[in-house]
Each structure stands twice: as structure tokens, then as C-alpha cells.
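User: What would this chain look like folded?
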Amino acid sequence: MRAKWFAIPFAIAVLATGCGGSNGTSTTTKSSGGGKTIALLLPETKTTRYEAFDRPLFEAKLKALCADCKLLYSNADQDAVKQQQQIEAALTQGADVLVLDAVDAAAVAPLVNQAKQKKIPVIAYDRLISGIGYDYFVSFNNVRVGEMQGQALLDALNAKGTTSKGQVVMLNGSPTDPSSADYKKGAHNVLDGKVKIGREFDTPDWSPDKAQQEMEQAVTALGRENIVGVLSANDGMASGAIAAMKRAGYAPLLPITGQDAELAAVQRILTGEQYMTIYLDIRSEAEKSAELAVAVSKGDKPAAPTTVNNGTAAIPSFLLDPIAVTKDKVKDTIVKDGFYKAADICKGEAAAACAKAGIS
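Assistant: Here's the prediction, encoded as C-alpha cells.
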């Protein structure tokens, strides 16, 4: 994977995207016993990355670094109350470190404070926790993600000659996820003054179903022929918007962005249904978080390359560079890095598109 820790000179506020045990239950993984206990708490399962990548990659790195460490794992299924209960359970079970991807970035602050009072280090994973200081934040440069999405959409509209001929619909992420605000900020940095934004939505829970409803509302309000493109903050919501476009009779479909490089999205990009995605080096994110968790469990304090202001404190942070991926870049990024095997991508309708793209 081509990872690069990115230091930024300005403060940013951040958001969320997530996964875990599909029914929200907690699981425990032991090695030989006697080591530290690390709690990994992920937010939801609607986004496929968390169960498919974040959890197994974190767990594998933890085992490699600390054979006798114990992992406490929970997934909140996008339920903030459930996650609070899971954090309380982890503290009760003797967690030495919390690695937390918050469903609601503000709601977990009291529990983070409980951990601090017990001198238990907290690492905010992927989403910034607000309202309190803590040990580390590991994520991506989220404003840059939004800028890449905005620029990709602008490039697509310019190529089609439709930049000034209609309006854009923006499907932003969940309002409880601080990263959503950064994605939105980055997109507006690029799009404002260059395109007309006809409708903009903050999509609860990053829900594909809600994104589909929002897109349907936009088509009704603006008129089918007056929409020229869609800024979707992630791939799951893009799938909902695409379903709405198909239902509305768009052929070809409008250019639409995404994020997370979900397998279905990569296939849609190759077949022309989705214009681009943001490829996040989740392996490096998960492995860095595991490294930090092991280090702080031993009392070490690794130096971070930058800080992010969460509104209360400057949080020592490790931020990865995102990568924008269009059809012509799938082979040299996602496939080359082994994020997915060609055999997994090149199925069904994507098989012929893979051949055209030289993916085999």
C-alpha cells in the first residue's frame, strides 16, 4: 500500500463512516493471556469497510505486535446509546486502551472522560471525537477528500460540457460525524462559484436508502433535465443515488462521486455507473492504530507528525493522504496494492469492463 502520513498546518474538525459485529454484539479474542487488553469499538455495518478491512487488519497487526494481548471488539450498528454501553462494558472488563470510532462524536465525550480519569489512553479512530482532549487521532486528511471529490466532479462536468448547463446535488455524510463537515468543506472549496448547487442534504447515518430518497426529492424539486451531477460523500450513498437516477430514467447516468473504494463501487466505476471513488489506505490506518494501542498500553508516547483541533484541545494526529480513483486508475491503485484481487472485481457485468481496462 502506498501510505503517507500527512501533516497539515491548520486545525480541522472531522466526521465518521463505520463497521463491526453485524448484530452489534461484543467479541473477545485472546492470545496466550497475560498481556494488555485493547478495546476496538467500531460504529456501524452499513459501510462495508469496517468488517471487511478495519477489524481484521487491526486484529492481525495487534496479534503480530503483542502475542499475549487481548482484543475486546464491539460494533454499535449506528446506535449511539449501544456504543456508550459497549464503552462502559470495555472499561468494566479492564480495557487498558480504547480505540474508538464514534457513532456520535460529541455523545462519547463523557465516557472518554471516564477513561481519562482511570488513566486509560484513548485513540480516536477514523472519526474525530469532540468536546474533550485525549491521546491520539488516526484518520485521513478529510478536507482533502472533499476537495478531491469536488475536483473530480468538476472535471467530469467540464469534459461533458455541462458545468454551466444545470445544477449539482450534494449528498453529504451524517451530521453526527465530524468528518462529514470536513468533506463538505473540501467539496465547497472546489465547487463554489463554479457550479450551481441546487439541493444539498446531510444524510443521517450515511444511509444509502436515505440518500436514494434525497436524490428522488432533488429530481422532483429541480426537474430531471436540470441536474448535471451528484457529489456523494461515500460509495454507499452513491449506490442509493444511482438507484434513484435509474428510477428517474437517466441514461446515461449523471457523474457521481464516492468514497471508501467499496467493491461494488469499483465495479460501478469500471462499468460507467459511478465516476470515481476515494481510495483510503485502510491497512495503514488500522495498523498504525494497533501500533499506537500497543505502545501506549506499555506507557510509551509516540510522537505524532501533526495535531488536529477538536474544538477543545489539539489532538496528536496521524493523517493519511487519500487517493482519487477513476476508471483509468483502478488497475494502478486498488488492484496493484492488492486491496481487491482482479478475480473479485471482474465478475458479472464488470468482466468485460475489466478486460477493456487491462485488469486480469
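Residues 1-26, 28-34 have pLDDT under 50 and may be disordered. If you want, I can go into more detail on any region.
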